[in-house]
UniProtKB/TrEMBL annotation:
Chain segments carrying region RNA binding: 252-258
Binding site for Zn(2+): 309, 311, 314, 340
Catalytic residues, chain numbering: 89, 271
Lineage: Bacteria, Bacillati, Bacillota, Clostridia, Lachnospirales
Keyword set, alphabetical order: Glycosyltransferase, Metal-binding, Queuosine biosynthesis, Transferase, tRNA processing, Zinc
Name of this protein: Queuine tRNA-ribosyltransferase
Enzyme Commission number(s) from the entry: 2.4.2.29
Pathway: tRNA modification; tRNA-queuosine biosynthesis
Keyword check for Heme: no
UniProt xrefs under Pfam families: TGT
Oligomeric form and interacting partners: Homodimer. Within each dimer, one monomer is responsible for RNA recognition and catalysis, while the other monomer binds to the replacement base PreQ1.
Reported function: Catalyzes the base-exchange of a guanine (G) residue with the queuine precursor 7-aminomethyl-7-deazaguanine (PreQ1) at position 34 (anticodon wobble position) in tRNAs with GU(N) anticodons (tRNA-Asp, -Asn, -His and -Tyr). Catalysis occurs through a double-displacement mechanism. The nucleophile active site attacks the C1' of nucleotide 34 to detach the guanine base from the RNA, forming a covalent enzyme-RNA intermediate. The proton acceptor active site deprotonates the incoming PreQ1, allowing a nucleophilic attack on the C1' of the ribose to form the product.
Amino acid sequence: MYQLIKRDGLAKRGRLKTVHGVIETPVFMNVGTAAAIKGAVSTEDLQGIKTQVELSNTYHLHVRPGDEVVKKLGGLHKFMVWDKPILTDSGGFQVFSLAGLRKIKEEGVYFHSHIDGKKIFMGPEESMQIQSNLASTIAMAFDECPSSVADRNYIQHSVDRTVRWLERCKKEMARLNSLEDTINKQQMLFGINQGGIYEDIRIEHAKRIAELDLDGYALGGLAVGESHEDMYRIIDATVPYLPQDKPTYLMGVGTPANILEAVDRGVDFFDCVYPSRNGRHGHVYTNHGKMNLFNAKYELDDRPIEEGCQCPACRKYSRAYIRHLLKAKEMLGMRLCVLHNLYFYNNMMEEIRTAIEEGRYKEYKKQKLEGFTRGQI
């Protein structure tokens, strides 16, 4: 159940109650594709860096270790020792990212595994069954994420099929949640809005899926190659047509600046691999912009990554030491950078929630964006 606590312009401060605890929104979901955050980050670590929700990948867990294995071990929460909410994506994004390995039909998608080439079929029912086996808190509907350069005719047909798939997802989830051996009988379902960069297709699709009264709604197919301007234009056009009394999730986005802009447009759920991926390459986020710790100027720098930051890296270690670890290819260097970046994102979301509550979000956003462009110290 979603409760809208406060609005500041279009920015929403909400609360989603789930079977695995309360999610305070806006929220950034920390991405653990294969049931782990890349960079040797444990679930105990996540508890200490303000993580509210962990996100795992349906397709990847289906391929390895297998969703049936996870179910036999008690579901994803038990498997990865995490007692807070988990969102699983549907496998729909892999329809886009594994374009060379798949064939799309009305019944679903035929894949070849990216690991061993084995044939896989996934349709709406299969995606729901896999996610039910994983027993995540929130399951995403199975959709097609069309390429940002796909033509209008293709996108319209794709969106129409995604609506039909969503109806099948809803029906199958209701069936699965009623079964005796289902681990999480209160699993939620979020639908996904598609339509490329065509406003009219997006709006029409939003209206159609809003009628299905789902637990939440996502904007998919953005941050897949289009410009930031196009992304913001589509968010502006589409969000008003999604139910305002349900969570709105912008999938796969993004940079801290992207998040600040999207919150201002009414979005309250986010996920992105940037904090962990960039951290593993020594790129860290700060209130003064992004730093590359491989730079020679940090060789003798005994300051933390960011003064005043309470993450595990900044509380104890210097830029010079972390740079040395990265240069020496010691895993601890990657780990500390990832922990810092995730803490930075999670802490920023906490600041965003407070700013909305206090009715000063526009001022907060302006100050934060100015800081990002100020340059490094």
